[in-house]
Amino acid sequence: MSGHSKWATIHRKKGLLDQQRGKVFQKLAKEIMVAAKGGSPDPQQNAALRLVVDKAKAQNMPKDNIQKAIDKAVGAGDSANFESIRYEGYGHGGVAFMVDCLTDNRNRTASQVRSSFTKAGGNLGTDGSVSYMFERRGSIVIPSDYDEDTMMMTALDAGALDFERVEDTYVITTEQGSFTAVRDALEDAGVKEFMECELTYVPNMEVTLDEEGAEKVHNLVDTLEDLDDVQDVYYNLKED
User: Fold this and answer.
1) pLDDT score of 80
2) The domain 83-119+208-235 belongs to what CATH superfamily?
3) Can you give the pTM of this predicted structure?
4) Is 222 exposed, middle or buried (0-12, 13-18, 19+ CB in 10 A)?
5) CA 178 and chain centroid, separation
6) Which runs of E-coded beta strand occur in the chain?
7) Cβ contact 99:113 at 8 Å
8) pLDDT (tens digit per residue) in 126-161
């Protein structure tokens, strides 16, 4: 995705976060619990947990909330077992969607996701029908307060694919395998704040729609993200 498109996506995600911060924190807590249950409760000893903790910090989730989720995962009081499920489908204009969920009730989640697509004029597809259109990438966004040349060389030397300045941020893209090395190198170079720091999926082909069509796609994204079981929504609309 281009830097401009990436910045439009970031702005949109942050705007939704501001509106629905409580719901977002609940979903992040669920991810943290699942990661903590799957290994050590120490993020430094559990790569999956550190990844989601970094993601939570980038979204300004309070440290107390993060620790409570970890404590709940390792405590005897929590008995919920969440299952990871991915749904693939198409929205308006043939825009491809991948919807990642964490659920304790597969039937409920399937019904809700299917209904959301149907009401939006889309449809669910089979496993693999959409995922080939996306690539796993590391996405790191930091404020442009830091020296640009230093940050660029640090990121590229650590294995980043791309580094660009977009308005008042630096947007860094990495391969999945080099994400941790790039993140750690930036931290070692003095970066204290990450506006985004996560593994995500980016489209290798994009669909262009007019304003009305794009609004329909965004409405479906909003509907899906409002579902409690939905963690992440990826789609290949070209953002202006």
Assistant:
1) 67
2) YebC, transcriptional regulation domain (3.30.70.980)
3) 0.86
4) middle
5) 17
6) 83-90, 96-103, 123-124, 134-143, 160-166, 169-175, 196-203, 230-235
7) yes
8) 999 999 999 999 999 999 999 999 999 999 999 999
